[in-house]
Amino acid sequence: MQIKVIKGHGSGNDFLLIDEISNTYTFTEKNRAELARLLCHRETELGADGILFVMNSEHADARMRVFNADGSEASMCGNGLRLVARYICELYGRSEAVIETMKADLKVSKQRDLFPDVHTYQVEISPVLFELKALPLNLNQPTLYNERIKELSTELRFTAVAVPNPHLIAIVETEQLQSGIQKQLSEKVNGPNELFPDGVNVSFVKQLDNGAIYVRTFERGVGFTNACGTAMSASSLVTCLQELNPFEQPITVYNNGGKVQCVVHKLARDYKIDLIGNATYLYESTVEVNLERELVEITDKKELTEEGIYEKLQSEVQQIITKMLKG
Ligand SMILES: N[C@@H](CCC[C@H](N)C(=O)O)C(=O)O
């Protein structure tokens, strides 16, 4: 079959966007998982952290489904939603839209560029759930807030939150970032294990100046990625709850692929987060895919020029991260 894809990224978290609104593909559920495993594989010419399928919605402007590189489906994807926001706003000539995701309809809108000439979108991250059954996390307590999990580490304290995909977050110091502990415990909770039967995204967060944090995430179904939008949003929330950053004010979140801003809103009964960052396209291409024989061939490719502009933001951020890690 022939498939048109757009390769893009949000903070270096890269995706293949497939438009099922304008094209009449007849993918089965099995096909979507197979396409994710095949096209995202880094040894193919494409390679990505996941696939974003953009579909018609019965009640919203469009629907997003996100598949991780291992073929598992995630309920949400913050960086991916910014790409879908851009795609739908440009497709319909709008500056805002509502996108249906697995568990919620989310507002998205075009914003002033975060960095000169970098397309910037804001997406809503909601619902926010602290009940352990929402992740799920099998511990004999209702929630986990800044607490130890003895099976994972004797020194780190974790908060568990679903937004609504599952996240485990630890606020750490530079030495802990530089140790191998994040990889070790992330692999444990994302392999067969009793604590997190569905796996979990694991983030280490370091507070920088007031109003700025650094977040590194090991993503469920992928491994370490440059950035994870839902993780940066959940991490911002955790820093507000620990009074490291204020609610209702922009928090700059540095990551290995760039930077975003998060604003954490405290509502009457719960929280919601605005995630604001780039939606950068790298190229558009047509691929010939044979799922049975696991073959992919790019038959047409149009490079776009946006990455050169984004690299300026990226090099500024790299200097900040290097300085931070040197202490
Ligand atoms: N990178 C995404 C999250 C993608 C899904 C995640 N790996 C999961 O399985 O929950 C983001 O930007 O939020």
UniProtKB/TrEMBL annotation:
Location in the cell: Cytoplasm
A GO cellular-component term linked to this record: cytosol
Catalytic activity, reaction form: (2S,6S)-2,6-diaminopimelate = meso-2,6-diaminopimelate
Record bears the keyword Cytoplasm: yes
Enzyme Commission numbers on file: 5.1.1.7
Family under the similarity heading: Belongs to the diaminopimelate epimerase family.
The keyword Cell cycle is assigned to this record: no
Transmembrane region(s): none
Keywords noted in UniProt: Amino-acid biosynthesis, Cytoplasm, Isomerase, Lysine biosynthesis
UniProt pathway annotation: Amino-acid biosynthesis; L-lysine biosynthesis via DAP pathway; DL-2,6-diaminopimelate from LL-2,6-diaminopimelate: step 1/1
Subunit structure: Homodimer.
Active site feature: 77 (proton donor), 77, 228 (proton acceptor)
Superkingdom assignment: Bacteria
Enzyme class, broadest EC rank: isomerase
The organism's taxonomic lineage, starting at the top: Bacteria, Bacillati, Bacillota, Bacilli, Bacillales
The protein, known as: Diaminopimelate epimerase
A molecular function (GO) term: diaminopimelate epimerase activity
